[in-house]
């Protein structure tokens, strides 16, 4: 059939169209080939880092259980997945424009011998019915210069960029949950410190009041002891609120209620549950970070947009076709003599638009240049984040050791000073100063231990961590 041949020819021309988009060339990563070295970094090896899963880094079953709940219920992740589905669907919508749209229509009519229609299907004189069935191509543009193909490629890459963005949300969710879990453990320790300090302060108040009643101690000693007690009680209230807020955050990240049995009792539970990551990793691993992948697909989409803009400079050719059957008798509708066909085409070409189309090409090229700079900037930012985390990781062990030694010395000083006060050698003020120093040292040690854990989490996040499965083609 002639109509069928015309349809096949049009489809072949569309699929064989040329592309005016420039080839995407990714630049070399604008960062060194290895991480910084020196006393702060403690470079261990240049072995390649395997792909990380959150289960291999966050080893506590309680934290893993919370992570699984979060990946199922977190609303931000659901929004990200919905955006991926929408972007994939949009790519399919754009791709559909590369193919002919085929429609069908039919009609029926009846008239009496005088040319008047009769609604009841009968007539007094001679009359007859007209029936038709038509099908054909509607609004099909020959993609000679790759405009539609490049538009499809651009939307496809935007869909892939959206999927990479969803994996960034996943990575941030797991890292934020681990961080909140660790902070909860630290706040449990800080609450215990405040409770211990308050208990000691109450005992000091009792003893000092007894010494005041016996005429041994002045009233100022009692007031100073009461100040220490009030400070500790304020800390208890503050840490109780902090723990409640920590639970609220974990509940938000998980997307539902949280079993308290899954929460840590202190940093002693947290520290061994979050594994340390090696420092000696080639910086090429940054190309696996989801934000870098997103920037790469954004660059590819911008490159395809140039092809779309360039194709706008050339004529646009549209085809229409029609084939069908027409008869004045239903019984002969599909007879060979009832078949008819027609075909046509339209050509539109720009003559003068005051440079608008060429300006559109310039806009696309500028957007491509911006996307290229954004891609390079994403890699450089990733490198800086990893290097910063490695700098802390290289020295945090010494800081933890020093904090523990400071706490031990402060505890010994407090014990000796209290004994000297009770023996009448030192003043009560010296004893109070020693207690304050011990309280500060214990809190500082907790902060340093928390920093150690948070550095491991930050490195997991900076290296891309477990950001989900690789992107798939929409």
Written overview of the protein:
With 474 residues, this protein is an alpha+beta fold. It has two domains: 19-98 and 144-314 and 356-462, Outer membrane efflux proteins (OEP), CATH 1.20.1600.10; 102-142 and 315-348, Single Sheet (Outer membrane efflux proteins (OEP)). The protein is 60% helix and 10% strand. The chain has helices spanning 2-15, 54-57, 61-73, 75-96, 147-213, 219-254, 267-270, 290-311, 356-422, 428-462, and strands at 101-111, 128-142, 316-327, 339-348. The chain has a four-stranded antiparallel sheet, with helices on one face. Helix 6 packs parallel to helix 10 and helix 8 (290-311) packs antiparallel against helix 9. The longest helix has 67 residues, at 147-213. The two termini are 35 Å apart.
Keywords for this structure?
alpha+beta, Outer membrane efflux proteins (OEP), 10% strand, elongated
Structure summary, number of beta strands: 4
Query: How many structural domains does the protein architecture include?
Result: 2
Q: Which percent band covers the strand fraction?
A: 5-15%
Gross morphology is elongated
> Mean pLDDT score, rounded?
76
Question: Quick summary of this structure?
Answer:
This protein is of the alpha+beta class and 474 residues long. The protein contains ten helices and four strands. The longest helix is centred in the middle third of the chain and has 67 residues, at 147-213.
Helix and strand layout, with pairings?
Layout: H1 2-15, H2 54-57, H3 61-73, H4 75-96, E1 101-111, E2 128-142, H5 147-213, H6 219-254, H7 267-270, H8 290-311, E3 316-327, E4 339-348, H9 356-422, H10 428-462
Antiparallel strand pairs: 1-2, 2-3, 3-4
Helix pairs in contact: 3-5, 4-5, 5-6, 5-8, 5-10, 6-10, 8-9, 9-10
């Amino acid at each position: 059939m002639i109509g069928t041949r015309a349809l096949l020819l049009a489809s072949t021309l569309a699929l064989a169209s040329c592309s005016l988009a420039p080839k995407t060339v990714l630049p070399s990563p604008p960062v060194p080939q290895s991480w910084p070295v020196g006393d702060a970094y403690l470079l261990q090896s240049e072995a390649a880092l395997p792909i990380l899963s959150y289960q291999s880094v966050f080893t506590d079953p309680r934290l893993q259980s919370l992570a699984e709940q979060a990946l199922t219920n977190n609303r931000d992740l659901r929004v990200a997945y919905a955006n991926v589905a929408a972007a994939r669907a949009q790519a399919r919508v754009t791709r559909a424009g590369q193919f002919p749209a085929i429609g069908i229509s039919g009609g029926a009519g009846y008239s009496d011998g005088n040319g008047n229609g009769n609604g009841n299907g009968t007539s007094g004189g001679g009359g007859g019915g007209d029936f038709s069935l038509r099908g054909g191509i509607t609004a099909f543009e020959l993609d000679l210069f790759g405009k539609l193909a490049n538009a499809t490629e651009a939307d496809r890459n935007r869909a892939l960029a959206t999927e990479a963005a969803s994996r960034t949300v996943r990575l941030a969710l797991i890292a934020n949950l681990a961080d909140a879990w660790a902070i909860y453990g630290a706040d449990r320790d800080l609450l215990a410190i405040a409770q211990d300090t308050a208990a000691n302060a109450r005992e000091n108040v009792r003893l000092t009041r007894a010494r005041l009643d016996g005429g041994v101690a002045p009233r100022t000693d009692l007031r100073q002891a009461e100040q220490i007690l009030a400070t500790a009680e304020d800390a208890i209230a503050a840490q109780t609120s902090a723990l409640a807020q920590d639970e609220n955050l974990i509940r938000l990240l998980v997307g539902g209620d949280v079993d308290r049995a899954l929460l840590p009792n202190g940093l002693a539970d947290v520290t061994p549950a979050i594994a340390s990551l090696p420092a000696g990793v080639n910086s090429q691993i940054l190309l696996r970070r989801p934000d870098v992948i997103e920037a790469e697909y954004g660059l590819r989409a911008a490159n395809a947009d140039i092809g779309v803009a360039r194709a706008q400079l050339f004529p646009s050719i549209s085809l229409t076709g029609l084939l069908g059957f027409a008869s004045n008798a239903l019984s002969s509708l599909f007879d060979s003599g009832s078949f008819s066909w027609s075909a046509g085409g339209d050509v539109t070409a720009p003559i003068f638009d005051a440079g608008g189309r060429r300006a559109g090409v310039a806009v696309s090229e500028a957007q491509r240049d911006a996307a290229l700079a954004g891609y390079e900037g994403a890699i450089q930012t990733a490198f800086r984040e990893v290097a910063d985390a490695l700098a802390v990781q290289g020295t945090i062990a010494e800081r933890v050791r020093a904090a523990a030694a400071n706490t031990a010395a402060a505890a010994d000083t407090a014990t000796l000073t209290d004994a000297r006060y009770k023996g009448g050698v030192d003043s009560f003020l010296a004893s109070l100063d020693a207690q304050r120093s011990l309280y500060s040292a214990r809190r500082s040690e907790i902060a340093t231990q928390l920093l150690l854990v948070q550095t491991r989490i930050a490195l997991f996040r900076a290296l891309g961590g477990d950001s989900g499965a690789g992107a798939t083609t929409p």
